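Form 7-S
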Amino acid sequence: MADDIIIPEPTKAESAAIKSIKEEDVHKICSGQVILTLAVAVKELVENAIDAGAKNVEVKLRDKGLELVEVCDDGCGVKPNDLESMTAKYHTSKIRKFQDLQSVETFGFRGEALSSLCALTEMSIITRHRDCSEAIKIVLDRKGKIISRNCHTRAPGTTVLLTNLFATLPVRRKDFERNIKKEFAKMCQILQAYCLVSTGVRIRCTNQAPNGASSLIMMTQGCEDVLSNIYAIFGRPKLGEIIKLESPLKDSKGDVLTQDELISALQANAGDNANITKEDISSLYNREFELEGYISSCAHGSGRSSKDRQFFYVNSRPCDLKNISKAVNDCYHSFNNSQYPFVYLNIITSRQEVDVNLTPDKRQLMLGNEKLLLSLIRRSLLLTFDQIPATYKLQNTTISDMQPQANNIDLESIDLIPLSTAEKFRNVLSQWKRTGDTAGKAPNVTTKRKCLDEITARTLKMQKIHQFLNTEDIKPSGEFDYKSDPETDEEADKTIQFDKMQLKEESNAFDELVQKIDCKVLTPKKTGCNFVDTKSFNNSDIDTANDVASKDDNAAPPIIEFDVSDSETQEHSNLSSQFFVTLKEIEDSLKAEDAIKSEKKSKAKLERLRFKSEITPSQNKSAEDELQKEISKSSFARMDVVGQFNLGFIICKLDNDLFIIDQHATDEKYNFEMLQRTTNLQYQTLAIPQTLELTAVNEMTLMENLPVFEKNGFKFSINSNAPPTKKVSLLGKPFSKNWEFGKEDIDELIFMLQDAPEGTVCRPSRINAMFASRACRKSIMIGTALKKSTMRQLIQHMGEMEQPWNCPHGRPTMRHLINTAMLLDDTEINENK
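Output:
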């Protein structure tokens, strides 16, 4: 069969020849960019219906949209004269020029949707304008041209029928058929967003199975408030589980804030809002702005296990707002960090502040001054959650806030030096006395310093010490007494002692040091000079000089006087110059040069290494990435066991690389994955079947994946004759000693299945946690001595795991130790020395 397939050759054209693409091909290319999925196709038709003023919109799917998509409305309909231009590219009744985008109030405005659908599917339209007595049915070709036109009967409005969606794009069609369950779930999610925001519009969605049975997916009643739509789609929650958002422009009492009060309030809520100016707030007050919304209560149990019910709008247009979604969830987690909220948030703002013309599906928007908007949303959430009884937000508490405040201390007129400061001062002074360096760093040998400069600098320091020692405010005993608050400190009297005599001794040592330094200030006799070649001094010379100097701690470092000349420049000048350098400075200079060379060699080695991350928690991610990149599953079979270390780790070798493997974490991960694959949890039958308040979409997902739920220990009763949302009842749920499971785990599993590939075994997070606990208890423990065969088996198991790099609790299983080739390089270098 493969030999019969004729693959057309690519177009061969000279690079210099630029020609226009055929109009038909341009139409196909552009149409494929506008209509990407089933969800987008249904969205465009529903938006057209709502823009037409419809009060009833019905979406009918056949085989989840694979066979047919039909959208019927009771809007104003299309006039017979406009039928030709209705499906023409870039023909619309919404705008006339680019400037109209700043004031467009409809969902659509580009005139692309119907034309693009014609190129991707077989389309027919039945429409009747409200001023006409009969309807007209038209059939269109791929270019959007009418190929047949007949009279029809229907009430005013429009019906659009799409057959075999993506039939003209074979690859996309196959992908559509293969992932139809996921595509259907996404379509329902998008449609829910329009159901919630469209007040006064009755939206109904049904699906007809291949066997002819029809089921209701979702429906609203055309209510005039959003909350009723929420109840119609998701069911009525318990009292208090969904609450209305408070206005950020008001205080907790409901009074409108002034501009200055709002700036202060925003800056108090978050430290990063300091850049919000009064001009920003002034423009906010001068334009239309409002936050309409509902959110789950932050009380534990009121949220959800996933973010599947979060809907964001700008001027009632459904959209994806990543930053705002993150801000909402982060704020909610500061009150309830184990769940996600239900969110309905509609941002009403000036249309001039929003750019909706970013993507073909108009789901991505650009907002003016998004930072201010995020601050207002945070304030609204804080005001909302602060009113919930028995909840509070954890505040960052600094150490200074927790320190007890001492009272009755009258030490304002006394300059105190803390004991730790005095000790540090003595240590630095002693080091300076020995080496002439207060910082403890090797001096730079290339810096020319005159002795007088050294003496002057050190004399200034000692003058400050003399001044401190002669201060009359310090008592002779060096003691300072104060009283502490007895409620905060049990010790009534505390004493800070300072040894004044020690400073006097070190001051006298300095005077002796100055007298011992023999310094000559030399005037340069030569215009050019060279520095001494420090490499000419060997280590024995330096050690001898240091031994002499160490006999007397108060002696000055030996000073060597150099005559510096340059043979290359003697014929140009007969002048000479002298400068001083200590043996200690020469030694430090040589050490610094060796350190630089060693660092360069280390960098060269590092560039040849495959594994560069260190064994530290801060580099866990990079270490794991390196292992995934360099180590394949077959690599574990080639590893040699070196031995066991510290009764907890296995050392193994692959080529020139040594690895350390955590024996407990590795065995735990293997047992965990085995439990996930093979365990069928037992269920406990309920005395009374529990009714599940599922949406029609979630109900369909559950019924289509019953084996997955049964593998996780859930048992259901299915009543096919019951109305949607009432077909499933819970008969049994999994049990395991101290672990209890229920509706929250079912909701999480449904959410996972909607995005999981076909055949994936999904487990709720709490069941995974139970498996992790079981795997931990049955695994090889730290402290267990292992035979070489057991170590070999653990390494082989790593090659059989799906993800062997960390245990279920997040602890790494394997890390790179060292490359033995690098050790050989070091040995060769030392031998060459």
